[in-house]
Design brief:
The complex is a heterodimer. Helices cover 31% and strands 27% of the residues of chain A. Chain A is an alpha/beta fold. Chain B contains 16 helices and two strands. The chains are: A alpha/beta, B mainly alpha.
Chain lengths: 258, 416
């Protein structure tokens, strides 16, 4: 467990027109750890993630990456820093195969021609490093894969580029029990490989199964960011639903509008 | 050539002949029929026409098939790119008419040499493509509406260009030779040998490179089968085209591969290379499969859309040049009436999906062959245009039906 976070946000404000969605949010992600980001619908999880990924510009606040303050104003800049987001709707092309999807938009070329052999090798190496053995052939079309396999491909696509932070938006939401277990195992392995993983989830079992830290958003404010070992299941639920739980969380919930 | 559609990657560990065949059979059963309907249709149609009308099998008629089908096939090749995005270009037929009219007026009224006229025609096609593509991609008007409007407008434009319906004769020998001259038989054989040799070399080099890096390789028998199939089909075609087909060979000898054939082959090879071996081609498939995913992967979706329309319209321009060469003239009907439907039909019959994301350039050639055979055979049978229209319309509907059904089936079997 490293002491300094790879990615740190301080005092983040974000408004859409007159509606302020995020208030003074602080958030950190550490290398080698899974940080779960939880919160009720509309708490601002997706907005926070989109601010991290450079899709939404931030109104105020500090963005620190690897100890250095940075400006991230486009997804491309985020990718250059090594931040990859795996969206809920996966963003894979059904009519392309696994290798083609993993390199989509960043194809390896030798001259004008696609360098299929190198791409195939790199894809195979990445899948091996994640101990993925569920796919039959990496030249399979994505349309022939199961939900869990697709999620695996989407995650492998994110880690292919030596990324440092991988943000997963509800990776298990649409999966069955066995496939959920597979994906969670993969999430854990990402962190064990030294990446900082941010996991958005609604499922408390998933969160406690793999997370090292839990960050709870409540109505656009960071209620608490705690170590998973220090809290109980019900405390987290309380934080999600009311923004506080005993000593933890926002101490003046009713006055939050100030 | 359909046998060459056995693709790599059907099996994981050790691809053998068996696994290749099994993989192909699985895909067909799962609804991904590829070129199978077109090849099957071609065989059935040819057999039927050959039995009913022996004239169908003569050397002169065989050569006619190529010159009759060339323009539609070339337009269909361009349409494949637009169809791959899930869009449609209804104006491709009249776009070819406009470009042909530009060619004819540049030649006849301005007395320019052929290359200036050809460049002018293709540039016209590019401009049309940029305009259509920009309207679809930037303004977001459905391509159906944009190109339907263009379909009407281009009809008018052709009329203006040919001075309200006069017939402009094309007298330039170079343009005329495309559809009216043949390669000397020896050159035809040379072209054939070069094609087969290059194809074999490409296959072998790729297999050796992949084997050298320890990647899965198609078994040698499959590669040999592909090369053999190409050599056989191509060899028979060149042989048949080199047969003397003049009624009186003493007065004028008529034999050899029509010049339009190597042009179509060159276009086929070039666009197949672009689609399958370049990042641009990969991005076309990606946008057709999932435009949102392509956008998130950093692909400029608008630029891909516009370039697909540019390719379509400039291929329509080349189709128009071929049509002008065939008719020896350009009139308001060039590129009109059934040309567009034949071209869309050719692409779809060949196996390109109307729903986007699936299709190859060879589809246009196979489908174009089917359309040409229907048209030619029905003509020999003495049917009127009315029947021809109805039959061709039905075939297009049938192809679209097969496409929709196979898509449904593929969705059920998880192939697409």
């Amino acid at each position: 467990m490293s002491s300094q976070p790879v990615l740190e946000i301080r005092g983040l404000d974000k408004s859409f027109g007159p509606v302020q969605v995020l208030h003074n949010v602080a958030f950190s992600a550490y290398a080698g750890e899974v940080t779960a980001l939880v919160g009720d619908n509309g708490a601002g999880k997706s907005t926070l993630v989109k601010c991290l990924g450079g899709i939404h510009p931030i109104d105020a606040g500090e963005y620190v990456f690897d100890g250095k303050p940075v400006q991230v104003s486009s997804p491309r800049e985020a990718a250059e820093l090594g931040i990859e987001i795996v969206y809920q709707d996966l963003a894979l092309c059904d009519n392309l195969d696994i290798v083609q999807n993993m390199f989509l938009g960043r194809e390896k070329k030798s001259g004008l021609v696609l360098d299929e052999a190198t791409m195939e090798e790199m894809a195979a190496t990445t899948l091996d490093s994640l101990s993925v053995r569920t796919v039959k052939s990496i030249r399979q079309l994505v349309s022939s894969l199961s939900g869990g396999q697709r999620q695996t491909v989407a995650i492998a696509k994110a880690v292919l580029w030596n990324s440092k932070v991988v943000i997963l938006d509800e990776p298990t939401a649409a999966l069955g029990v066995a496939q959920t277990a597979q994906v969670l195992e993969l999430v854990r392995r990402l962190a064990d490989n030294g990446l900082a993983v941010v996991l958005i989830s609604h499922n408390m079992n998933d969160v406690f199964a793999v997370s090292d830290r839990i960050a709870t958003l409540y109505l656009g404010r960071m209620a608490a960011q705690v170590k998973a070992a220090d809290v109980t299941h019900s405390q987290v639920v309380e934080l999600i639903t009311s923004g506080r739980s005993g000593e933890l969380g926002l101490q003046n919930v009713n006055g939050v509008t100030a | 050539m359909s046998a060459t559609t056995v693709r790599k990657g059907a099996a994981a560990e050790a691809p053998s002949i068996g696994s290749n065949v099994r993989g192909y059979a699985e895909r067909v059963r799962g609804g991904d029929m590829g070129a199978l309907p077109a090849v099957f249709g071609l065989v059935v149609l040819c057999t039927v026409f050959a039995i009913l009308r022996p004239a169908f099998l003569t050397a002169i008629n065989f050569a006619n098939l190529f010159t009759q089908g060339a323009a539609v096939t070339v337009i269909a090749m361009g349409l494949v790119f637009v169809l791959l995005l899930g869009e449609i270009d209804l104006s491709a037929g009249y776009a070819s008419g406009v470009c042909a009219a530009v060619l004819a007026t540049t030649l006849a009224n301005h007395g320019q040499p052929w290359y200036v006229a050809v460049i002018a025609a293709i540039v016209t096609g590019v401009v049309i493509g940029v305009a259509l593509g920009a309207l679809v991609a930037k303004l977001g008007i459905p391509s159906f509406v944009v190109t339907l409007a263009a379909f009407l407008a281009f009809q008018g434009l052709v009329l203006i260009l040919v001075n309200d319906g006069t017939n402009i004769a094309v007298r330039d020998q170079t343009v005329l030779s495309i559809e009216n001259q043949n390669l000397p038989p020896a050159l035809g054989w040379g072209f054939y040998i070069a094609c087969v040799a290059v194809y074999a070399a490409v296959q072998l080099i790729r297999a050796r490179r992949r084997a050298g890096r320890g990647l899965t390789v198609d078994p040698a028998t499959v590669i040999a089968f592909r090369v053999g199939a190409l050599a056989l089909v191509g060899g028979l075609a060149v042989y048949a085209l080199n047969v003397e087909r003049s009624r009186n060979a003493l007065i004028v000898s008529l034999k050899g591969v029509p010049i339009v054939v190597p042009i179509v082959v060159a276009l086929l090879v070039f666009w197949t290379f672009v689609l399958r071996r370049t990042a641009f081609g990969r991005h076309i498939y990606a946008v057709g499969g999932n435009a949102e995913a392509a956008r998130r992967a950093g692909i400029n979706v608008d630029r891909i859309r516009i370039s697909a329309f540019v390719i379509c319209s400039s291929m329509a321009a080349i189709g128009g040049i071929i049509a002008a060469s065939r008719d020896n003239s350009v009139d308001p009907n060039t590129g009109g009436s059934n040309v567009l439907l034949f071209a869309v039909g050719a692409a779809v019959i060949g196996g390109t999906s109307l729903f986007g994301g699936k299709g190859r350039v060879i589809d246009a050639v196979l489908g174009g062959a089917v359309v040409a055979v229907i048209n030619n055979g029905m003509g020999l049978m003495g049917y009127s245009s009315s029947v021809k229209y109805i039959v061709t319309g039905s075939v297009l509907l049938l192809a679209a039906g097969v496409d929709a059904l196979s898509r449904k089936r593929a969705a059920a079997s998880g192939l697409r």
